[in-house]
Amino acid sequence: MYSKKNTLLVSDERKKYLKQITLEKYGILSVQVFILLFFIFIWEVGANLNWIDSFITSSPSRMYATFLNLSKNGLLKHLGVTFYETIVGFLLGVIFGCIIATLLWWSKTLSKICEPYLVVLNSLPKIALGPVIIIWVGAGTKAIIFMALAISLIVTVLELLNGFLSTDKEMIKMAKTLGANKIQIFSKIVFPANVSTLLNSLKINIGLSLVGVIAGEFLVSKAGLGYLIVYGGQVFQLDLVMTSVIILAVVAALLYKVVTLLEKFTLKSIRRQ
Q: Cα separation of 123 and 211, whole Å?
């Protein structure tokens, strides 16, 4: 009898706890939506009452009209180009980053040799290499993807390498004592222990890849959101510039959300195993 009452008590407490979490979640979401809507309202009112120069800052209503016009005149094409370049650059950055980080973990000597170069390359503004990249790989999609790769690759390498080197030393020593070779240590201990590190780097890299693509499209492109922003600035259509920036922000948020969902799904699958 006591056990049944105790179970009911725990169940009620858990329901209250879950309800509190749900209310807090929706409360935060409501505040976020309110702040966004209030900002849009003030922006529109300010533009209509000439508190701000709508030619420079545009306005939500003008941006909406521009968005409708874009939707009928190739918006999907520009979105598709930017999305394709971002995904390709992102995947290449992850693949090559994993390979290079593994090689550097494998050889401590190679890691020590490459460390200062990685730090310098990570600090170097990649946009400064834009003209050189265009000469190397040619103007067009290849140059834009290469720019995205250049921006995301070093971050992936440094983050994964740091995770690999921080793996539990005692566990590695135990595996060596039991006769495990380096391949077994990496595949059974080091890499599994850093799956969360890899997934976290994906969330960073998707944003960096998009930044690289837009930077590349600023320099050389015939389509894409970066192209729309540059074109709008050149012809003083700031409505087009602001609309493209907002679309870009939405794309960035959606890509980040997709990677976050992938992270949750992967971690759940690992826990079930």
A: 16
Residues 117-149 as b or e (16 or more Cβ within 10 Å = b): ebeebeeeebbebbeebbeeeeeebbbbbbbbb
- pLDDT tens string 64-103: 888 888 888 888 888 888 888 888 888 898 899 889 988 8
Return left, alpha or beta for 168; rule: phi > 0 is left, psi -120 to 50 is alpha, else beta. beta
Q: Computed over its alpha carbons, how large is the radius of gyration of the chain? A: 25
CA–CA gap between residue 86 and residue 158 (Å, rounded): 21
The residue among 190, 207, 234 whose CA lies nearest residue 90 is 207
CA quadruple 196, 198, 200, 205: dihedral, nearest 10: -170
Query: How many Cβ atoms from other residues are within 10 Å of residue 21's Cβ?
Result: 10
- The single-letter DSSP state of residue 244 is H
**14-45 pLDDT tens trace:** 777 777 788 888 888 888 889 989 998 898 88
